Amino acid sequence: MKLGVCYYPEHWPEEMWPADARRMAELGLSRVRIGEFCWSRIEPEPGHYVWDWLDRSVEVLHKAGLGIIMGTPTATPPKWLVDRMPDMIALDEQGRPRGFGSRRHYCFSHKGYAAECDRIVAAMAARYGNHPAIVAWQTDNEYGCHDTAVSFSNAACDAFRHWLAAKYKDIAGLNSAWGNVFWSMEYRTFAEVDLPNLTVTEANPAHWLDFRRFSSDQVVAFNRRQVDILRTASPGRDLIHNYMGFFTQFDHHAVAADLDVASWDSYPLGFLEQFWFTDAEKLRYARQGHPDIAAFHHDLYRGLHPNGRWSVMEQQPGPVNWARYNPAPLSGMVRLWTLEAMAHGAEMVSYFRWRQLPFAQEQMHAGLLRPDSSDDVATDEVRQASAEIAALAGEAGEPIKQVALVFDYQSDWVTDIQPQGQSFRALRQAFEYYSALRQLGLNVDIVPPGRSLDGYAMAVIPCMPIIPDGLVEQLSAFKGQVLIGPRSGSKTADFAIPAGLPPGPLQGMLPIKVNRVESLRPGLVATLGDGSIRQWMEHIESDLVAEMTTDGGVGVCYRNNNLRYLGACIDLANLQAVFSRMADEAGLSVLALHQDIRLRRNGNLVFAFNYGREAVAAPLISGAELLVGSLIIPAAGVAIWRMA
Ligand code: GAL
Fold this sequence. Notes:
- By secondary structure, the protein is α/β, with parallel strands linked by helices.
- Helices cover 31% and strands 19% of the residues.
- The chain has an eight-stranded parallel β-barrel with strand order 1-2-3-4-5-6-7-8, surrounded by four helices.
């Protein structure tokens, strides 16, 4: 695994570049990402390119032995461009322009902007595409960040109408698929269809779902244009995009189909603060991040490409600037996060950013260096990690296949459009299942539907309302243990309730019928022995005898051979009891890990990570030689064993 850093030569006087490059190399870094926001400096006036400064910075970095990941600058169109075509600006759901003055102010559907992107990407690729220092390209930056994968502009509306016409061919088909007879919503032509925002009360969920699918397709198409240019002009280089944490606004599997390597931007403390975690979890893990946040995304993004190629493009090195609260990582966490990425098979971890910038929006965001160029806290940890990675070179191998967790983006769109109970989301459901499995010491891979399940002992589908074609056949052929979670099979592809009631097509494998669903406010629970059902509860009719029932006698989990359906959100202990039973039947052994400890097996290596603030005794790994760390793992510590 290589280490790298995100660097912005345009932010610093040129005299500083050589020393920066030398210090990067001395720290053990061999990759540097540059360029992704520099449009106003390479094209300060329309059509007038200024490359000399970027040429020189590429040479300086190259001379220091660093391989360059060049970003295309399309996330930050300059002011002159926006003024030339003001309608390239995206509009938010309230119809307000997402104006110039920060970034990502473009609409994915604007044809004029797309042509400008072709031009700047082609110019950059022509300039640097065959330079020996360029090892990879990053397309744009974080598609969808700041809620920008959707736009409600005229350009988007036009493109949406065309997309609908291509999908439905005639308007009667659309009316019937969406059920527009309801509330007199029928259209006579595709030109009459507007975007689903600004309606009096909620728009038709089928309308929203098609809009989400369309918006995702626009991101895929936007990315593909860059890919087509870069593939030709810069052969042999990896094409990468940097995805985000807990972000589902577009189908990442579809974008990845055009790229070579997945990468993501890992800010465990910011994500803990900004997402659904309880106050108790936010306090307990404020300086470490929840123990499953980084790993969940490592496994999610490793699953984007069938060959498993992935990296961390941006790694938090200290406090960030954008969460509600921005604490500093516990001493040791930057090293832990780095080694954890290695345990999950990353090709690279690149820190964001090299030096804290004293001006503009991110001035409060830490880097590896302080604004005065002195080493900030993380540099020692990076140095240590770099030496440890070098010492372990050749040890790590193929990830061990145990559990496949099947996730698709559409499931999260469906639950987001129609939560039915506040904050129910397929993504959260996936995270919670992942976390429960991992706390049992199991290796979990996150894969899209349709990816081969060969070699896995268990498959888990946390929540998949629309069952994609082929999945039932795939699951029927799978010999391992399967668990399917609530709301799966509850919608048709047109966002309607299936004719035979949920779980729709899954009934072919499992004779159950969901007769009623209810969502439960916090505090309203159904008891399940020592645990409980919260948030979501289905009432299931079946000739099968339930494997788990509420104290009131409502069936919760049904089983047919190797397949189980769980129709509720249940507490961790009960969920783990189900998983443990499955693991047992599948021939996997589980561990009772301390709540702050996580394990990851990779080839012959076993890694243990202590996400707690106290030292914890390492789990017993029999027949293994301890290579790194000690049997008492300190706070933020790591232990690594080699299996015999
Ligand atoms: C990422 C982004 C970077 C930087 C960073 C700050 O979302 O890609 O450009 O803004 O966050 O944490």
